[in-house]
Design brief:
Elements lengths: L19 H14 L6 H6 L5 H14 L2 H12 L15 H5 L1 H25 L33 H10 L13 H5 L4 H16 L2 H20 L11 H13 L1 H21 L1
Length: about 270
Amino acid sequence: MSHVYGRDPVTAISEAEATGRTAEIFADIRDVMQIPLITSIWRTLVAIDDGLETVWRATRPIYETGHPDAALQELKLVGRFPVPTQMPTQLMNRTEVEDLDEVLNVVDAYNRSNGMNLIALSALVSEPTGEPSDYPQVGPRAPWPVVRPLLERHEIDQETWALLEQIKWLGATNDSPSIATLWRHLAHWPHLLDVGVKFYEPLQVNGTINRASERLKEISKQHAIGISHFKPSTDEIPPEAWAMVLRYTAGVSRMVTIGHGFALWLRGVKQDGN
């Protein structure tokens, strides 16, 4: 499939396109992780022969321990998630305010998936030292409400795409950041993206986002080392897929940081509007 699908979030296979074994694995990921959608790391791995199959086979036992979920709950308590001081209630249009619960469901879904993937895949690529993790078990999550489908590139108008090209720089640490799938999913609400760019840009310029992201990455690494005791052999994973996972774990902390901050910010909007 490497000749069909790209290796970035925009050109990766969509959930709707997945068939056969790929669709089966996607369904298993949703079930095991208790998430309503498949984030980009799993969709981009499809572009590498045996990439998705082998990485999920090695990561699934880590998830089955329940430790990534428990570690994420701890991470949410100690992480610093930058939030603009201004509330954008007056700048959001009426439709976006009315859709706020739906918007938050989308953001929460990515936060859960990105956060647990940060921890579980960091455990996959870490060498175990010290004692194995021993977290209290987290109970099953309530079923997710139905969320709107992720828009494909051709379904997004140029003006909204220009906003995505701006917001992708939040937390970026290289000269060619990709458009995170969370932002593309929020293209259903373009004015919200515009507000997000305006209010978060100062936190990008003064380094607040990057400092919080680096701190979160270091904390997650400590969790991952203890959890890595539970990983099976990774010998079957193709080198290209292994490299993709390494790049993902090196960079996804920025979206975990921004995403959780964004959720806190929007919940403040919701309280402000009540």
